[in-house]
Amino acid sequence: MQALWMVAGALAFALMGAVIKLQMSADYSAFELVFWRGVVGIALIGAVMRWRGVSLASDKAGLHASRSIVGTLAMFGWFYTLGLLPLGTSMTLNYSSPLFIALAVAAIAWWQGGTQPARGKLYLAVLAGFVGVLLIMRPTVEQQQQFALLVGIVAAAMSAAAYLQVRMLGRLGEPEWRIVFWFSIVNCAMGAIATTATTGWQPLQAAALPGLAAIGVLAAIGQMCMTRAFSRGGTLLAASLQYSGVVFATLIGWLAFGESLQIGELAGIALVVASGIGATLAMPRAPAPVAPTVVAPEPGAGRPPKPTDPAVGMLGAEGAMEPR
């Protein structure tokens, strides 16, 4: 039963991606949507923090700033790809971030003299995953799509870096509510600066308000569902089921936007998903300290794993599976 929470969270994030795609078709830029995502996040998370009595103050402002800046840049990239790529393809690239984390874990295992079989499984999973990415980046795509694909890969790498910084904050005792709140603050600040400096602001019309609010609300629902799945269910099962978001996104893209994928792209998506699950299963385990209260990040901005999460490996732990 607990596994269904992860499926519900993945569906919420897939729906959020569809809403973002619709809003971008209405001429809202990725920068502007990140700003409004932050506004809704501040309102929702701030209200929960007040209710739970969590303080906003932190003596780790530098690490919060670094994590939030990297995570927001990753979110810029993911939102940008949603406007140019099929929904399923964009979600797949976003979910390729665990491959970069697996690469880091494999490198550390090699540096610390980890067992050869464990390293071999990780290397195989990472290699297969990037072969899947190459299949998605078929040579026949339009030049604009080619650039969007590259942006998606860079965003996934940034998401992995943000993920590791969230992990570090958790190990230092920072509540996840506070991490996500300050991330939302930086979303607003960077989104506002980027929008003003580049595309300019779209007039805020009443018809757009439900969509803008839905982005933040669906993100919050996804966070809560994934948090519940990781905190009450089996970690390996939950980590694997999060890839159901790729299936949901592909189906939504087909039904809502008339998107069709070629055989090579579908094979690439399947390979990335299988490799992500394989990398999760192959990562080494390690004991970790008890974590504070957890809020799951949405795809695209890094997620803190549970202390028992095999993704922790030799890098430590601090919490359980936010943005994207």
Mean pLDDT: 78
**SSE topology string:** HHHHHHHHHHHH
Largest sheet: none
Rounded to an integer, what's the Rg over CA atoms?
18 Å
User: How helical, in percent, are the residues?
Assistant: over 70%
Q: Briefly note the structural class of the backbone.
A: mainly alpha
Tally of alpha and pi helices: 12
Shape designation: globular
The termini sit apart by: 25 Å
Which parts are unreliable, with pLDDT below 50 for 5 consecutive residues or more?
286-294, 303-324
Number of domain units: 1
Question: What is the number of beta strands?
Answer: 0
- How large a portion of the residues is in β-strands, by DSSP E? under 5%
Summarize the SSE layout with pairings.
Blueprint: H1 3-25, H2 30-52, H3 61-84, H4 87-94, H5 97-111, H6 116-136, H7 143-171, H8 176-197, H9 209-232, H10 235-241, H11 244-257, H12 263-282
Helix pairs in contact: 1-9, 1-10, 1-11, 2-3, 2-8, 2-9, 3-7, 3-8, 4-11, 4-12, 5-6, 5-7, 6-12
